[in-house]
Design goal:
single chain; Ferritin; mainly alpha; elongated; 163 residues; 79% helix
């Protein structure tokens, strides 16, 4: 791998991890106070599971966008996959701001549904560029499907305090 490719890979992974870092600023403050007080749906994973899972997913996402970027941004298919990736990554960070920062369960539901659709679009467009790039996003959409179930469950189970 040449130096330019290494730089692209590092930038892709660090940018993905940075989005997670931004989200975690809001998440960490709300977990011990607000989030622990909420009723949660059955099969909610323990809080300690989220950090390692998200870190792994952000690394996989970074490698995925790197593979798209490596193909060159000269065709519409690579450009669409590349742009969709960054849009969904921004919405990913925004979800934490809305759900944990603003403590808006309903706003979180709307945002996570938009995020899920954007991930699906990103995954499909990435598959068109590189099977590996699309495949690396499969665990992400599975985890966000679980997160959607949790967000909707929290929203429904805590209706008396819903925003």
């Amino acid at each position: 791998m040449d130096l330019n490719s290494i730089i692209k890979l590092v930038v892709s992974i660090l940018a993905s991890l940075a989005a997670g870092g931004i989200g975690s600023l809001f998440t960490f403050r709300a977990i011990p106070t607000w989030y622990t007080s909420l009723k949660k749906p059955r099969y909610t994973p323990p809080n300690r599971a989220f950090g390692p899972v998200w870190t792994t997913l952000y690394i996989l996402m970074g490698v995925s966008v790197f593979l798209v970027w490596q193909k060159g941004l000269t065709t519409s298919s690579t450009l669409v996959a590349f742009v969709l990736f960054w849009i969904q990554l921004a919405v990913n960070a925004i979800w934490s701001v809305i759900f944990f920062g603003m403590k808006s369960k309903g706003g979180g539901v709307i945002t996570i549904i938009v995020l899920w659709v954007l991930i699906l679009a990103t995954m499909i467009s990435s598959f068109r560029v590189s099977g590996w790039a699309g495949g690396l996003l499969v665990p992400y959409i599975i985890w966000v499907s679980i997160a959607s179930y949790l967000n909707i469950g929290v929203w429904l189970m805590n209706k008396s305090s819903n925003k």
